[in-house]
Write a structure and sequence with these properties.
With 94 residues, the chain is mostly helical.
């Protein structure tokens, strides 16, 4: 969702900048510099989006690790009932 909004914003800002530059700036060098800066703004917006996504991914990984660390231990393999009825397996015989 945010990615599409960021892309649309970048396209809109660059488009408006191109047309405003054509109509207002008379020097070619200044116009070229303004286009370069507009494209850099677009790159910065996309970089910011990548940083947000990366941070969220790391936070989810930490959250999963904490959930895994706080799991309840499983029940023992053999219960008192098994011992009371005389159940034995090969491991206990050795």
């Amino acid at each position: 969702m945010f990615g599409s909004v960021a892309s649309c914003t970048s396209i809109l800002v660059c488009g408006i900048g191109f047309f405003v530059g054509i109509s207002q700036i008379k020097e070619a060098g200044l116009y070229g510099m303004s286009i370069v800066l507009l494209l850099q703004v677009s790159d910065y917006i996309q970089w910011f989006l990548r940083q947000i996504i990366n941070t969220e991914s790391i936070m989810v990984s930490v959250e999963r690790g904490l959930a895994l660390a706080n799991l309840e231990p499983e029940a023992p393999l053999r219960t008192e009932y098994d011992k009371s009825i005389g159940f034995r397996d090969e491991i206990e015989k050795e």
